[in-house]
Structures are given as structure tokens and as C-alpha cells.
Amino acid sequence: MTEILSPLPGTFYHKAAPDKPPFKTQGDAVAVGDVIGLIEVMKSFIDVQADAAGKFVRYVANNEAAVMAGDPLAEVA
Amino acid sequence: MAIKVVKPGLSTTVQDLGRPGYYHIGIPISGGMDRFALRAANLLVGNPEGAAVLEASFLGPQLEFTADATVAVTGAELSPKVDGVERPTWTSFPVKKGQALSFAFLKGGARAYIAVSGGVDVPLVLGSRSTYTLGALGGFKGRKLEAGDELRLGEGAGASGRIVPPALRRGPAAPAVLRMMPGLYWHRITEAAGQHFFADTWKVAPEADRIGYRFRGGRPLEFVPREPPFGAGSDPSNIVDACYPYGSVQVPSGAEPIVLHRDAVSGGGYFMIGTVISADLDLIGQLQPHAPASFACVTMEQALAARHERQKQLAEIRALF
After folding, report:
1. Model's pTM, two decimal places?
2. pLDDT tens digits along B194-223
3. Would you tell me which CATH number, out of the four given (1.10.357.140, 2.40.100.10, 3.30.360.10, 3.40.50.360), belongs to the domain B176-317?
4. Is B11 an interface residue toward A (CB < 8 Å)?
5. Any chain B CB within 8 A of the CB of A68?
6. Considering only CB atoms, which chain A residues are within 8 Å of B110?
7. Among the four residues A23, B149, B184, B219, which has the most C-beta atoms within 10 Å?
8. Going along chain A, which residue ranges are E strands?
């Protein structure tokens, strides 16, 4: 099991827009560089990219959660 | 001598102590949001205090050096790594030609100041190397750094192994307390609203940036009823347009206070509840999104004493080197 960590503080989103599906759901294949979520900070949205490949297990941080740099966001196995 | 930008980070800009003297025509001072940390970083590498450095917000850049240099990182707890080996913050260290400078995850604070011996050599614009991104002015091509940029450095060998001892470092407490002097428009809110403003705990909104730091989470302000003066709008937080000082706290519609910072807009039509004192502006630059903060009411005498205290702390660092 590998955790994908937040590279910076901000607000974490599972979806590209409120009416869009989450970037990943359980069982999805994850490749290095895949976008798994967004962090909003300073009026910008920054892609969170997977730094490990495998199968998506779950989001650890909730949608719209306030996160710190280094907080776990999701699990990949 | 040069630095190649491999990865720029989130928002990394060239900043010095800023561009005073043009605010009346709408060009803000810009410069490092945490001037104390910027000065300390320069002193650590043997630069003049106001040399241009890199200000990195939340996420460190990845840089490749094409010449030997001395580097120091102050401000946020964003640990530098030379070819992957971690170095301490608030300490000067050598980086050899061909080596890479990268950063660990942010552990505290919000903005790191990366000083390099010789200083970052970009053209002076209106007397400063600072970047004002909103006006596309100064710094490196008037913008934040991008991958592939190459920065020139000034002359200077630097001095490795210098340390600012922990007692002389400065960062915000949690929750941060921002000292503020009530302003000309204080009479516009009710007495109860004034009490709530100082009593409530606010949180930094994620959209806070170099222009202004927005806070939310406190109770909305209640205004004293009035007939809107000619030229002001109908919203109770509107005023006839006025100048906005650095540190001034505007509260549009009484909902979310915004503290204007180094890239401030120079004027407008929102009432200002007061002004955060100059000694605490540096601390704002180190607040992360969602960080708790409160405002404390101070007098002019207390504000001047706080400024004096900060100058003393800086003098102690100067005396070390």
C-alpha cells in the first residue's frame, strides 16, 4: 500500500468540477503521473499526480477537506 | 553564473525589499512578504540585506546550479536538499556547480526565502528587482518562474556555515495574533461588532495571496445605519473612494476581512476597520491556508514599541555576521 501525499497546503478536491465524477474510484488503474485530485490555493488549482502505480484503493482525505503539505490524500495498492 | 529552473514550484518569484515611491500612481511596493526572513537569508550568505532572492510559496522549486554558490533558506520550514541530501534552514551551505537544489514538503510557515551569494541578477525596474505579477513588472520578465528559465547571479563568493540561532528566528504563533490599530471608519460598525471582531477566531482563506490575505469564520460585522454619502455605493461597507494603506483591513459587506499586503491595490471604496501594524505584516506572509488567527487592538505607542522590538531583533542578527 502506498499513500499519495499532499505536496502543499490548501483545499483538496476529488473532482475536476462539482458535476464531474471523481478522478479515481476503487479498483481503477493508477499510472505514475495520473491526476488523482486537485488542491486549491492562492486562486489556483494544482493537479495532484500519483507518484506510484497500482490500483486505486480509496481517498483518505475527504472532498473539500483542508489539507496540510505531507497529509495523506489517497491510497494505491 | 546561472541557475536553471527545472521545476518552478507553485509560485516562486524574484523579490527584494521592494519598490517604494510609486503607490500614489497605483504601483505597490511589492518585495518579500516576510522582509525579516528575506534580510536574514541575505545576511547568511554574505549579501547586502536588500539583494534579490527567490520567494517560494508553499512548494519549493527544483533548481540546477551551473556555478558554485552559497545558499541559505529562511522563513517557512521548507528544508532544502542538495542532490537529495537535506540541509538545515536558517543556515548557509555550499552548492557546487552541477548540483541540484530541491525541497522537502512544507513543515511550517508559508513562504521560504532562498538567498544565493551574489543575489539574483534581474534588471532594476523603478529601482527594484521585485516582481509585481499583477502588473507584469520587474523580477524575471514580470512573472513567476517557469521551467526552463535561467537566472543570472551577481558577483560574490558567499560564506557557508553561518547560522541564525533559533531564538532569533521568527514565525507566527498558532493561532497567530495580528495586532491592529482601529482606523478612521471604526465608527461605521456597532460597538458589539467591534467586540466580536477582536474576540472571534478567523481562518486564512485559501485564496489569500500577495495582494491580500482574506480571513473567514468570524461573525459578520453589523453597521451603524446611515444615508449613503454621495459617491459611495448602497452597501453599508461602501465609502467614498479612499487610499488603502499597506496592512489596511477592508471588510466587503462586513463578511470577510482582507488584509492588504505587499502587492496591494492602492485605493477603492470599501471601508477599512483598521490597519495591521508593520511589525506583524511579515507574520501574515507565513500563514498557511486554514491557519487560525485573531486580531488584537493596539495603540500607536504599542505599534511603535513593536516596530522597535523588531528592529532590535534584526540588529542582533546583523551583529552576528
Report:
1. 0.94
2. 999 999 999 999 989 999 999 999 999 999
3. 2.40.100.10
4. yes
5. yes
6. 9
7. A23
8. 2-5, 10-13, 29-30, 35-41, 44-49, 54-59, 65-67, 72-76
